[in-house]
Amino acid sequence: MARSVLVTGGNRGIGLAIAREFARAGDSVAVTYRSGQPPEGLFGVRCDVTSMADVDAAFGKIEAEHGPVEVLVANAGITRDTLLPTMKEETFTDVIDANLTGAYRVAKRATRGMLRLKRGRIVLVSSVVAMLGSAGQSNYAASKAGLIGFARSVARELGSRGITVNVVSPGFVETDMTAELDEAYQTQIRKNIPLGRYASTEEIARVVGFLASEDAAYITGAVIPVDGGLGMGH
């Protein structure tokens, strides 16, 4: 039976691959996006996750189109990389607001319908950087690490209502963003990855799809690394 699925930041990269994965499985998929055009074949809603009014309006449109959201994938996020001594306060707080507080906003809104249904799946997209750290990304790492504590707390709150909350933690992934990195830097990165390559966006998407499936009904509060071994031991 088709479920109502929402993927935030689902118009490109990892988010788009996740949305396509659910659509292939026969689910009714909506994506939020901040700029550009919605992906073909998916129900797109323009939404800035730093605005609760935007989030509320987006959910209203999605619920009217597909019914209450049964699967939420909080993927929307930004980077503002700067070394700490020169990082402005808004550079730190903007990233926290989009990546961490944004996930809070959409998860809070999604639980309204999930609690009524007495079922639901929430998957938060973190990063290997959450546990490993990365120079120049103290804001991004803090936001992605915060998702883990948030997810595990909410998993304890909502488990008795049939709602699971899990985290997927990707490493380096083949996207337009990583393609722009200097080739020498990319070679250096690959040397540190035991599998010696980047992930495809589809490899991340399949893990998210699994966590939202019946096969993962007894998994909650978990952090699943999909990083080629880069972050092992953390």
UniProtKB/TrEMBL annotation:
Keyword annotations from UniProtKB, A to Z: Oxidoreductase
EC number: 1.1.1.100
Annotated signal peptide: none
Any Pfam family: adh_short_C2
A GO MF label: 3-oxoacyl-[acyl-carrier-protein] reductase (NADPH) activity
Record-given protein name: 3-oxoacyl-ACP reductase FabG
Every Ketoreductase domain range: 3-171
Natural source organism: Streptosporangium algeriense
UniProt family annotation: Belongs to the short-chain dehydrogenases/reductases (SDR) family.
NCBIfam families assigned: PRK12826.1-2
Keyword RNA-binding: no
SMART domains (alphabetical): PKS_KR (SM00822)
Domain of life: Bacteria
